[in-house]
Amino acid sequence: QVQLVESGGGSVQAGGSLRLSCAASGYTYGRYSMGWFRQAPGKEREGVAAIASSGRISYTASVKGRFTIPVDKAKNILFLQMNSLKPEDTAMYYCAADALAYRTSRMPGQYTYWGQGTQVAVSS
């Protein structure tokens, strides 16, 4: 059974950094492509970054140059390193797994498994 557990959220001032973790279990690394999503109150869920099993990565424009998506393949942990945070990055952040491992989709509907989310709050 696939399980995804996020951690690392918190409150930070603008310009600060946070590192989110997504611990995956129930499958070996590379079986799925993975993505990070976020949802702010009153807004639709947005794809932030996605990584295919090949290592190919896709970022949404608003986080390019600020966010990266490292992976610990041995431990099957996906990270979201967030630097230069802005108040508009405030949201609940989720990791998810896509059964099509070659894909780097940022469309929530294409993901099969989801974590419970971790809250990020950035103050100005």
SSE topology sketch:
Blueprint: E1 3-7, E2 10-13, E3 18-25, E4 33-39, E5 46-51, E6 57-59, E7 67-68, E8 71-72, E9 77-82, E10 91-98, E11 113-114, E12 118-123
Parallel strand pairs: 2-12
Antiparallel strand pairs: 1-3, 3-9, 4-5, 4-10, 5-6, 7-9, 8-9, 10-11, 10-12
Commentary on this structure:
- The protein has 124 residues and is mainly β.
- The chain contains no helices and twelve strands.
- The chain has strands at residues 3-7, 10-13, 18-25, 33-39, 46-51, 57-59, 67-68, 71-72, 77-82, 91-98, 113-114, 118-123.
- Strands 2, 4, 5, 6, 10, 11 and 12 form a seven-stranded mixed β-sheet that branches.
- The mean pLDDT is 96.
What's this entry about, in short?
With 124 residues, the protein is mainly β. It is built from no helices and twelve strands.
Q: What is the averaged pLDDT score?
A: 96
Helix and strand pattern: EEEEEEEEEEEE
How far the N terminus sits from the C terminus, by CA atoms, comes to 41 Å
Main beta sheet strand tally, sense and closure:
7 strands, mixed
Oligomer: single chain
Q: How many whole angstroms does the radius of gyration measure? A: 13 Å
Helix content: under 10%
Which term fits the overall shape? globular
- Counting DSSP H or I runs of 4 or more residues, the number of helices is 0
Unreliable spans are none
